[in-house]
TrEMBL record:
It holds the Pfam family Hydrolase_3. InterPro entries: Cof, HAD-like_sf, HAD-SF_hydro_IIB, HAD_sf. This is Cof-type HAD-IIB family hydrolase. One of its GO terms (molecular function) is hydrolase activity. SUPFAM superfamilies: HAD-like (SSF56784). The lineage of its organism: Bacteria, Bacillati, Bacillota, Bacilli, Bacillales.
Length: 256
């Protein structure tokens, strides 16, 4: 039976050096030859995954943790964050010297010329510090934003802004997405377009933003390098991403 394989990028497809292991690439190509469909499910934006999509010849993806979903290269679901809410968050964060980054499908911009927290976290994605445009969110749809603060400063955002979700992905940064917008909601939009049933989906991930996707998918695989909570919730835990974990999971599930 053909499966829809939903692949997180960082820590799942890409190893700890942000490289695609040869074993993973080979496994994906073989799985496709065996009749399975491949899709990306990531917290990154479309503009941040063009190289991966090209290298793996994938044109179906859930990005921004479910806010921007495309099938065969065409957007089938887009959900922007309310501009008034973003404005309130911007003012709140500004009073606390917490910078923001705003993203649409094409680019990311920063609320500040340079900030070490932005630099540190964005560099882990192998990207440069974004250009500054404080009014970007007033003139563009924003599908995801980032607020830069440490873990002990995070709770005040949850308490103050109930219309959005804050999900930590880095020591100094949280994703901001519309309430309830997750990779799981993205899957529901995607299966309508692909014709797969939810039972035919297998989710592969490692982070906290993969939890809902794992709960909703027919089967789920966590990487050994994943968050403890993610490993607890997965149907199966495979080896570390740096140790051919993805290819080993494909073999275990008899996808290849």
């Amino acid at each position: 039976m053909s499966k829809l394989l939903l692949l997180d990028i960082d820590g799942t497809l890409l190893d700890s050096h942000k490289k695609l292991p040869a074993s993973a690439k080979e496994a994906l190509q073989q799985a496709r030859l065996n009749g399975h469909d491949l899709a990306i499910a990531t917290g990154r934006g479309p503009f941040m995954i063009t190289n991966v999509l090209k290298e793996l010849d994938i044109d179906t993806y859930i990005t921004f943790n479910g806010q921007y979903v495309a099938h065969k290269g065409e957007a089938i679901h887009k959900q922007a964050i309310d501009a008034d809410v973003l404005n309130d968050i911007f003012e709140f964060a500004d009073q606390r010297d917490h910078p923001l980054v705003f993203m649409n499908e094409n680019k990311m911009v920063s609320s500040i010329d340079f900030h070490p927290d932005i630099d540190e976290s964005i560099k882990t994605l192998k990207m440069a510090h974004p250009e500054v445009d404080k009014e970007f969110y007033l003139n563009n749809d924003v599908y995801q934003a980032l607020v830069f603060c440490e873990e002990e400063e995070e709770q005040q955002y949850h308490d103050t802004f109930k219309q959005v979700d804050f999900v930590r992905w880095h020591r100094v940064s949280c994703d901001i997405t519309p309430k309830g917008g997750t990779k799981a909601s993205g899957i529901k939009h995607l299966i309508k377009a692909t014709g797969h049933s939810i039972e035919e989906t297998i989710a592969f991930g490692d982070g906290l933003n993969d939890l809902q996707m794992m709960d909703v998918a027919g089967y789920s695989v966590a990487m050994e390098n994943g968050h403890e909570e993610t490993k607890k919730r997965a149907s199966y835990v495979t080896d570390h991403v740096d140790n051919d974990g993805l290819a080993k999971a494909f073999k275990h599930l008899k996808l290849i």
